[in-house]
Amino acid sequence: MIEALGVPHTEVELVLVNGESVGFERALDDGDRVAVYPKCELLDVTSLLRVRDRALRETRFVADAHLGGLAHLLRMTGFDTLYDNHFGDDEIECLAASQRRIVLTRDRDLLKRSAITHGCYVRALRSELQLREVFDRLDLARSAQPFTRCLSCNTPLRAIDKAQIAARLPPGVRQRYERFAVCDGCAREFWEGTHWQRMRRLVDFAGGGRTLRALVGRSGKRRCRTLMVQRLRSRTKST
Fold it and tell me: What is the pLDDT of residues 213-223, one digit of tens each?
């Protein structure tokens, strides 16, 4: 009945019938009261689960070929997100099942595959609005760690002392910036560049104005663990 009303089973975490947690196979009787809940990061409902073996307590994604912009932005906000525009449905299904990832897609039929237990049908068309939609639906603002993951290859960034990479930096960058990070996956360098203000506003928009404030409040004085958002496009080009 839930899917008949347009809600894919992958987006459902908890079903209550007359206050009792049940599985999808539960037949309804006349007069039953049904409550359906999506995944929520703030509540651990593992002990109540009946619709699947266990909840996903670590938020990781795999995005289909239509959501490259969203995948890029999710990495920007610190979420482990796999994406390749050559991923087929079978490969996405395999990655979701083997690595316990949430599938992000604009293909409802993909979410109906039985091996995919968690997923979101993304309704928005623009990547910025898609990010806001996913943040709202999965309550991601408090889990975000902006600018801690490589935007290109999804590898976590590692802070590095400026002296270790100074020879590879353009002269203007060496003069203006002191904090740097590197990606061990694709060997790119990152720093707090001219794109920081625009990307910071985008991250704050995705969290409904809560993301950056939540990060600051969580640490008392920390802004973000890594603010490095402008990568070195050329190792020889001077700014």
Answer: 444 344 333 33
Q: Do both 99 and 119 map to the same domain?
A: yes
In a domain, 151, yes or no: no
- Domain span holding position 221: 157-231
Residues 22, 74 share a domain = no
Please check whether residues 43 and 81 belong to one and the same domain.
no
Residue 236 counted as domain residue:
no
Give the highest mean pLDDT range of 43-52, 166-175, 202-211. 166-175
Q: Over the chain, what HEC string results?
A: CCHHHCCCHHHCCEEEECCEECCCCCCCCCCCCEEEECCCCCCCCHHHCCCCCCCCCCCEEEECCCCHHHHHHHHHCCCEEECCCCCCHHHHHHHHHHHCCEEEECCHHHHCCCCCCCEEECCCCCHHHHHHHHHHHHCCHHHCCCCCECCCCCCEEEEECHHHHHHHCCHHHHHHCCCEEEECCCCCEEECCCCHHHHHHHHHHHCCCCHHHHHHHHHCCCCCCCCCCEECCCCCCCC
